[in-house]
Design goal:
Distance between the termini: 36 Å
CATH class of one domain: Alpha Beta
Structural class: alpha+beta
Number of strands: 8
CATH topology of one domain: Nuclear Transport Factor 2, Chain: A
Helix content: 10-25%
Shape: globular
Oligomer: single chain
Order of helices and strands: EEEEHHHEEEE
Largest sheet: 4 strands, antiparallel
CATH architecture of one domain: Roll
């Protein structure tokens, strides 16, 4: 994490400054085409892209899978083999909220405002105004998950959409 300062002045001539944080991570893509073309080194990802990747990793990692950090991850994988119904969707929602609150201190889960609540990506109107929205899709044997979050210290709201399906 690096920090930078930006300054602006208001009409009264008072100098204002705000601390902006930049979050960096390495790209987990290891293909030949995923290298930096100039340095032939691995790519870095920044800010919301790094945090989106982190949230996906938290959801898809089972506890005890990470060496020296046995509490990292979530139990989401175990719920994917249950019935695809609203009860399982509720348990998934609670587990995703718990895992993100516990494992990702850079974000705060926020409910989307009325401007972004209208339609989800599937065109179904949703009434919920929740930070983690889980929709059971029994016909496709999957769950649609939308996570709405805000990076701590910023005003922008970001979304992570994920389709969760059982795999063996």
């Amino acid at each position: 994490m690096t920090s930078s300062f930006t300054g602006t002045s208001d009409p009264a001539g008072i100098k204002l400054s705000r601390k902006n944080k930049t979050y960096k991570d390495i790209s987990l893509s290891w293909g030949k085409d995923d290298l930096n073309p100039k340095t032939n080194d691995i790519l870095t990802i920044k800010n919301e892209v790094a945090i989106n990747t982190s949230i996906r990793n938290i959801i898809q990692t089972y506890p005890l899978e990470t060496v020296f950090n046995r509490d990292f991850g979530s139990q989401v994988i175990t719920y994917l083999f249950d019935l695809v119904d609203e009860a399982t969707a509720g348990m998934l929602k609670n587990e995703i909220e718990r895992a993100i609150d516990f494992c990702e201190p850079r974000v705060e889960l926020v409910a989307p405002n009325m401007l972004t609540t209208g339609l989800n990506y599937h065109g179904v109107i949703k009434d919920e105004n929740e930070a983690v929205y889980v929709e059971a899709q029994p016909q496709q044997n999957q769950f649609f998950v939308r996570i709405t979050y805000q990076i701590v210290g910023t005003d922008k709201v970001f979304f992570v959409d994920q389709i969760l399906t059982p795999t063996r």
